[in-house]
Amino acid sequence: MTTASKTKEPFEWGPFLKGLAALAIPIAFQNLLTTTGSMVDTIMLGRLGEREVGAVGLCSNFASLMFSCYWGFAGGGVMFISQYWGAKDDKGINRSYGITLSFMMTVSFIYFILATFFPWIPMRLYTDNPEIQAIGIRYLHYAGASYIFSVLSTVMSLLLRSMEKVKVPLIASIASLIANIFLNYVLIFGKLGFPAMGIEGAALATSIAAFVNCAVIAAACLIKKQRYIFEFSQHFKWSGAFIRLYLRRCAPIIANELGIGIGLLLINIVLGRQIEPVIAAVAVFNVLQGVIIAFFGGFSSAASVLVGSKVGAGEPEVAYQRGIRLVYLSSAVVAIACAVIFALHRPILTAMGLSGQSYWYAKYMFLIYSCVAVVRLGNWTHNDMYRSAGDSAYGSILELSFMFGMVVPAVYLSNYLFKAPFLVVFYCMFCDEPIRYILMQVHLYSGKWIKPVSEEGKKALPAFQKAHGIKVKEGKKAVKSN
User: DSSP readout, 110-159?
Assistant: First the structure.
């Protein structure tokens, strides 16, 4: 049976594209502002030297590890909040936000303690270069506070985005970027009567800018009397059944993000033990990759909300049709973003303080990435969409299996056993993406990723499964009929 025959009504492109633009563009712009802040940091630090750029890049890897630890809860929060929003279930939204907030803030506090009071632990893990270690330790000591504010603003933004409200997080990001650029200029170089703090100034500017982001969101929601954010008495009314459901649905995402975080940690250990030009090039590449993800992230976040809300509202066929189109639209956006940045790579890399070997490495790293990004971020879109629809296991199992069964071994073998050139080692970081993309596509068209958590969604599911030939056996997962 073809997809066309399963669709009773023609797909409504107008409302779909309007909703996509209303969500994706502000979120992409917000992400881009955040990445622009990182790019400005790198440009300003480039005036201090490549070691400073490389050290801050390694500190960013530590922040990325924190992201891996809390994003499993964030993914679960989006799944529950977006579906309960589609079902107009206020109690479900409040308790989903409360439990997500609790877990994410616990993670942020642990990383704040490590960065502020024990910064040598991550720096010794990420590099064996004593000069870069010393610079990174100074940076982390002042940047640790940013973790708490960043995570708090992230979870508030997730709530607002899941309810299709994106203006407040965007405004907060603009304010944070302005504060970051101004404070970088003042504190790094000692302007307006302030002492020149160098690397510590950059870290302090990052922490203050993170506070500004958080404060603007909270103030705007308070002024506009935004529901849910300040309904504290409703946030923690969790029943045992709800906690079990939340953790059961989140468990694959948490395992996925933690596992990927560990895998990236192992890979970053290899990257952090390269020659100094490579370390600096990797730091700049991570910033440029962030620009691509900023464009892509808008579509991925929109996909989560546009699909998850329809699953929760009891419209699984609409969610299914949206999902298919969103995968290809987001891939097209990534391709355009990669082409534009690579066309402008010379002035960008030069402005960020790279020259000679470090420039050469960064150029070809981004060229390799541009070739795989469409597939890589296509996999990301699939996974985010599946999670919002209730299927948190499929993409997670695939990603973890390939990370530890293929990617990490390929990186270590190519670097230590075969002594391959660095760019070969770098390519090995993405060698699994085409295979996973094929498997993701098969699952996409099967329709088995539609798994509601709301009552409205559950009621509509049997008709959808019947229309798509998904046979359900009692007590077992749905399987595709022949």
Answer: HHHHHHHH-THHHHHHH---HHHHHHHHHHHHHHHHHHHHHHHHHHHHHH
| DSSP output for 12-33 | -HHHHHHHHHHHHHHHHHHHHH
User: Are the beta carbons of 145 and 207 closer than 8 angstroms?
Assistant: yes
HSE-CB of 127 using CA atoms within 13 angstroms: 30
Vertex 418: Cα angle to 415 and 420 (nearest 5): 60
Closest CA to 149 of 188, 184, 180, 182: 180
226: left (phi over 0), alpha (psi -120 to 50) or beta: beta
Tokens 């109690």 -> residue: 91
Residue pair 12/322 in contact by the 8 Å Cβ criterion: no
Q: Which of 414, 441, 443 is nearest to 430 (CA)?
A: 414
The percent of residues in the chain predicted with pLDDT above 70, rounded, is 96
pLDDT tens-digit series, residues 301-343? 777 888 988 999 999 999 999 999 989 988 888 888 889 989 9
Highest mean pLDDT of the ranges 184-198, 248-262, 399-413: 399-413
Q: What would the pLDDT profile of 348-396 be if each residue is shown by its tens digit?
A: 999 888 889 999 999 999 999 999 999 999 999 999 899 889 998 999 9
Q: Record the pTM.
A: 0.75
- Which region, left, alpha or beta, applies to residue 447 given φ > 0 means left and ψ of -120 to 50 means alpha? left
- Per 3-state DSSP, the chain is made up of helix, strand and coil in percentages (nearest 5) of 80, 0, 20
Query: Sorting pLDDT into bands at 50, 70 and 90, what band is 9?
Result: low
**Please, are residues 302 and 23 in contact by the beta-carbon 8 Å criterion?**
yes
- The one-letter code for the residue type at 321 is Q
Distance from C-alpha of 6 to C-alpha of 164, rounded to nearest angstrom: 28
Return d(Cα 68, Cα 354) in angstroms, integer.
29
Cα–Cα distance for residue pair 240/16, rounded to 1 Å: 37
Take residue 157 and report the two structure tokens written for it: 């933004």
305, two tokens: 């909300």
DSSP 8-state code for residue 407: I
Q: For residue 473, what pLDDT is reported?
A: 64
Are the C-beta atoms of residues 56 and 64 closer than 8 Å to each other?
no
Q: 3-class DSSP state for residue 238?
A: coil
For 179, how many CA atoms within 13 A lie in the half-sphere containing its CB? Answer: 21
| Length reported for the chain | 482
Nearest to 26 by CA among 377, 305, 358: 305
